[in-house]
Amino acid sequence: MDTIRLDPKDTVVVASRDFSKGDSVEVEGLDSAVTLLDDVQRGHKIAIQDIGEGAQIIKYGYSIGHAKADIPKGSWVHTHNCKSNLGPDLTYSYEPVDDRVKPGSKLTASDAGVSRRTFQGYRRSTGKVGIRNDLYIVPTVGCINSLCDNIAANFKEAHPGNGSFDSVIITHHPYGCSQLGGDHEMTKRLLQDISTHANAGGVLVVGLGCENNQIDEFAAGLSCCGESEDPGEVIRDLKDGLVYDDARVKFMVCQESDDEYETAEQLLDELNLAAAHDQRESIPLNELTVGVKCGGSDGLSGVTANPLVGKFAEFLVREGGKVVLTEVPEMFGAEQVLMSQAKDEKTFTEVVDLIKNFKDYFRRYRQPIGENPSPGNKAGGITTLEDKSLGCIRKGGKCEVVDVIPYGHPATEPGLTLLQSPGNDLVSSSALASAGCNIVLFTTGRGNPYGTYVPTFKVATNEPLVQKHSRWIDFNAGRLLNESMDEVLPDFIADVLEAVNGKTTRNEDYGMHEIAIFKDGITE
After folding, report:
1. Which pTM was predicted?
2. CA-CA-CA-CA torsion sign (208, 210, 215, 216)
């Protein structure tokens, strides 16, 4: 098919390949072909009827903006003739849809070919489940990033093949000192999340000694598994995510050590020994937590890769697993869809507050709410923030929204959880990992090599990207332009589960592991 029509109500379609002015293109639901009045690139939009000035432009069955001038049938529809509708806050009402995919619900026919209902993971003494046995070296302050690099290099030299671990990951960041109020707390919380993540078979937390983010306070915010006399307290802390095994998490302060390298070597040897006999075991899929996000999106993101990830989300939720969706600014203009998927009125209200509070964050800094999408998004065919958002939220499929959680806090409920975080690729990926996600499914149309500290599985929206940047991409969702979802989805599920079971993702193959921490204040 020349074009993709995403909903019968749409007044625009998406070009599946590049076209020239004068070409005739077939459109689903129209009796005759549409003659193009402009050149149109792959992923960009074509008007399939006359759209008058001021009229709404419909894609995905919803408005993505209004016409700035008359748009004749066959015209290229983009930033030159389409403008966002985003502005004042809206008034919302809870109008739940009936087709929500609920946790543990019956599998559909499209899932029938998938018999695997377990994965091979590591069950930790804390009760958490990981899919990697990595060693994390976590600096509490940016001053010692390079020192931590040296510590890691020494360990690798002494233990070829990373010793007992799959990978050695240093979580570089520039913070931990000279931060005030909420920024300091966000930094500390995110680093605590990393230190207690289930994908780590061992963690060395390294402090300098004089920073704001003091090791004693940092460790006091965690609960050591088995130390509490009150089992309810451990359960509470586990739900909060910040519980650890003291055989697997070690702390050191460089300024208090006569030889920080020697101290680190001793602690890492202890961790290496503790992890020596770790083995994968069969674990139900309902204990898997998956993050979903997009970056470097194009006009096909909402057509191929994001819907494919959404179908995986529905599959996992039917199995009782957890899916986490973030990038709150990329919900603007599509928030009512997510609100209609809320499990109850309380959750609906939490979604409303999530959206309003993030819009207030923009206003506090006097920034336009609809400034997104980026230049690369626009070059790829995305026109307005509504256009981007309606494609973005498709990564959650039709899963029931069961919870809304703050930045830095864990997803605990089976189903789809919304996480407070900005859309920035580095910050939002790190936030997903720190919400307890074992793996992040990251869709991209323009291409993005970034990987956070958990496996970051890249899903391309189009075949040319796969051919150009094969070292970045784990799966080609561009197949959906020529194949049905029923044909592609089983392969996608199988490939994701292979990664869950230990097959390295491309970011792991090339050692691409980074974090970024949300910052919202001044630095001293």
Report:
1. 0.94
2. positive
